[in-house]
Amino acid sequence: MSTTEDDSTDGHSHHLPAVEDWPQGFGEASWWPFVTALGAAGLYVGAGLFLLGQGDDALVGASVGPATIIAGVVLFLVGLYGWVYHGFVKHYWSRDAEDSTGKLRWGMLLFLGTEVATFGAGFVYYFFIRVGPWPPGELPDLLSSLVLANTAILILSSVTLHFAHSALRNGNRRRFAGLLGTTVLLGVVFLAGQVLEYYEFIVGEGFTLSSGIYFSAFFGLTGLHGLHVTLGVILLALLSVRTLYGHYSPERHTSVSTVSMYWHFVDAVWIFLVVTLYVGAAFTL
């Protein structure tokens, strides 16, 4: 692929893929999506290497998987920063963001579509296990009061975020900031609850990722969801910081809208996880 020199208005020079190499109307020429995708791939490769590093006949060292995951996270965040900055932030500060509002929301919808595919792959794996002999081994008491409390917390966080967004659109910034901060706190409490649940399973009852096919699906899906909640909490925290600097108004709230879409999606996935992994595991077909 040929390259061209980007002499855009941000004062920096970048070697970018030639615009003419891209599909007509795509409107973007950047390496950052490739960097981001490479980092995301590192997460999955690292998870695979982690599994290959378990047991007495491990194919790789035990530290190879975690190291690859950490490198993937760093590369993913660097790529995401560069992509968001060149794609959106520069335009935001040039005051033409409202022209891109529709594109950004459609972009978030496309992203969530890929997330459906990602979680869908995990659920297909679990359903494949579920139609076999059940239970596939010893299972602990999954639907505990901790899970129910965590579910209520996550649903409540969607409610507070919805009303925070409504308050912003109505011009009530004080109420927006308060409800947004409450949503961040609820997200952190949910993550703490999931850590506690993992602690009880792993340390208290001795169930790990390699304890059987059910737990490979359980820890895989809940862990993937936990990573998404963590990213959501980071995004909400960034919104909170920007709120303190007065970046949002009833007319300028695109990032609040897109992060809200992401957070509600993560909440919906959790409810589906509870129904299938926790409640569904208690019944025999």
TrEMBL record:
Membrane topology type: Multi-pass membrane protein
Keywords, comma-separated and alphabetical: Cell membrane, Membrane, Transmembrane, Transmembrane helix
Keyword 4Fe-4S applies: no
Heme-copper oxidase subunit III family profile domain span: 20-282
Locations listed in the record: Cell membrane
TM annotation in the entry: 31-52, 64-85, 106-128, 143-164, 176-193, 213-241, 262-283
InterPro entries: Cyt_c/ubiquinol_Oxase_su3, Cyt_c_oxidase-like_su3, Cyt_c_oxidase_su3-like_sf, Cyt_c_oxidase_su3_a-hlx
Family label: Belongs to the cytochrome c oxidase subunit 3 family.
Protein name: Heme-copper oxidase subunit III
